[in-house]
Amino acid sequence: MTDNAAPPSDLTFWSFVDYAVRKAEQELPSVNTDAMRMVLTLNRATSMVIYDLESSVHRPRGLTWPGFRVIFALWLAGPMEAKTTAEISGMSRAALSALLNTLERDGLIVRERAAHDRRALQLSLTEAGYGAILGSFRAHNRRESAWAQALEPDERRELVRLLNKLMAGSTDAKAKFRS
Amino acid sequence: MTDNAAPPSDLTFWSFVDYAVRKAEQELPSVNTDAMRMVLTLNRATSMVIYDLESSVHRPRGLTWPGFRVIFALWLAGPMEAKTTAEISGMSRAALSALLNTLERDGLIVRERAAHDRRALQLSLTEAGYGAILGSFRAHNRRESAWAQALEPDERRELVRLLNKLMAGSTDAKAKFRS
DNA sequence: CCCGATTGATCAAAGGTTTGATGATTCTGA
DNA sequence: TCAGAATCATCAAACCTTTGATCAATCGGG
Fold it and tell me: Where are the beta strands (DSSP E) in chain B?
């Protein structure tokens, strides 16, 4: 611990990014501050958006964020096998399996054995599930729109372009993905 | 369900973004696709980065992602009260309380009653905690650097600027934050 | 001064995630 | 054909998170 400038007393989740980058550079001069700032900012911005969506849109309607992701995927790409659902909704098959217990209990989805491969599971939305995703997604999209208004249209496009480029580089970086 | 163009069979976590935006517009013509694409992209890009960091850097070292966030905050801004730690590491006080049990058991942090307010908790890193964050953060930052290389320096700055602007708009959007 | 309101941490119950193991089914190559 | 390998879902244990309740300590207005 090199220095002891007291941390500002008004540090917040968001303002911590700047503070952390400066302080880390003091502690560890070899740090790559550009990369640090980028990842820290990306992570925190996303946390705030998702937390807002989950707590203001989905929880009040009885859905968790992962539950929403699954019925959202089934709405747009379903019916489909559990393996595919796990892949496109971004969770492991084990996590999906646990989550499906809740969604099935709540009557939103149906599990059926696949005809062509008796190991596999075919997932589909029930009528209630269809109703739930329709209502939830509308509210979700209204909330997204409020967030999106902070940027100009071309800024939104640029943000998307940069994130796409970042992901395109992930194979180069040999990133680890969910199995 | 308007149309039944079969979902591409090679849908992945990442390519689902494009598919979902197109399909949602068919299902629900009133959808704000710009906002939808932005939030979906933001969320998925971040998931991939964080999953990679957690699974390739932190878990192998015996840390979870939330555990890392907490000792990272204590490293740079600590010692400090639990309430502040929760705020700047982005979790509720209840979640932090549970998490501290693990970190304390593993000998990385110390809980002490604050002198000036006997309700409050003063948190600090142990020697082991300091060693853990130093080693973990170095590896973490190397991994961040690999990701960051996918963008040009000015693109990284632009990404950060856009995310900052997005967050600046969050108060307008009356976003809900952690209490 | 003191009682009611607020604040800080923790608890409890329900839920989702991880890794690694298990059991069932299907595939593959000799 | 058939035995070993791969694949699919699920389970188990440990962990983190959420909401809402509880308890102790502190603050503030009358």
Answer: 80-81, 109-113, 121-125
Cα angle, residue B42 at apex, residues B38 and B45 outer, rounded to 5°: 135
Rounded-to-integer distance, Cα A129 and Cα A110, Å: 9
Contact, A85 vs A97, CB < 8 A? Answer: no
Q: Which residue has the tokens 């399909």?
A: B23
As ranges, strand D nucleotides with an atom below 7 A of a protein CB are 7-12, 15-21, 24-27
Q: For the ranges B31-40, B64-73, B114-123, which has the lowest average pLDDT?
A: B114-123
Count of A-B CB contacts under 8 Å: 265
Domain at A63-144, CATH from 1.10.10.10, 3.30.70.2740, 1.20.120.1730, 3.30.750.24: 1.10.10.10
pLDDT tens by residue, B63-100: 999 999 999 999 999 799 999 999 999 999 999 999 99
Q: Give the distance, in angstroms, between residue A18 CA and nucleotide C14 C1'.
A: 37
Q: Map residue B108 onto helix, strand or coil.
A: coil
Distance CA A100, CA A163 (A): 30
Residues of chain A with pLDDT under 50: 1-3
Using CA atoms, how far apart are residues A148 and B169, in angstroms rounded to an integer?
A: 9
Percent pLDDT > 70 in chain B is 93
